[in-house]
Amino acid sequence: MLFRSVRGSxxxxxxxxxxxxxxxxxxKEIFNMAEETSRQNDTGNGxxxxxxxDGELIVSLHAGYETNGVYMDAFVARPAxxxxxxxxxxxxxxxxxxxTQREITRLFARAGFVxxxxxxxxxxxxxxxxxxxxxxxxxxxxxxxDQITGxxxxxxxxxxxxxxxxxxxxxxxxxxxxxxxxxxxxxxxxAGVIFHQSLFPDMxxxxxxxxxxxxxxxxxxxxxxxxxxxxxxxxxxxxGKAYELHWYDGMGHSFAQITPxxxxxxxxxxxxxxxxxxxxxxxxxxxxG
Length: 289
Fold this sequence. Notes:
alpha/beta; Rossmann fold; 9-stranded mixed sheet; globular
């Protein structure tokens, strides 16, 4: 499988060398065994392996917070001890706060982040694609962005992040578009990771994004086709935004929205592992920790 990467034309903030090295060490702990398992399965039944659960010891908790008097349920996972860590708000796609989203939240915690997944669909877990698309198209986008932004304030209220802690945002599919809107409409986030956004903001909303972005797409994605990605990156270039663009050959939509123990084809597991490794290194570089 081929993986291709492109960097945007904006100014690039490198971050500290110490933070980057720490991120590399931490992500290698998590992914080395997974990569070896994938290689072994390539010669076996062609299925992906179980992602190694090495990394930091974590705790996971039900959470909730209010934004402008409106309550939102959420799920938090964080390292069990140690100094304050950077926070990350994680946004699911139209599937809502599923078991898969909870497991992805734990994955980010094991990589050294205080990870928060807001239940921005209000407890809805669509039963099928048609129901999910209806829920997606019925969403109060402004209200969701306000509540998602409130998640950054909630994280900074926690001693595990701190009032001056940096917070990033990451979103899949619908959540990817909401992450772009939150980054453009507020100054709450210091980095953004976008997986194949299927909510496409008005290009003028991208002008006010002040954090660096890392973006991930599959070449076989029919929900977020290349034409949309090309238009998106043209706008980022026009506004002089700093971003990274990563393509994953042969991957469709939501290729990385899988649990660590999901049995998937080895190429999908490899693409997923690589996308998360890149995400962790990028977020540690931008946020510290």
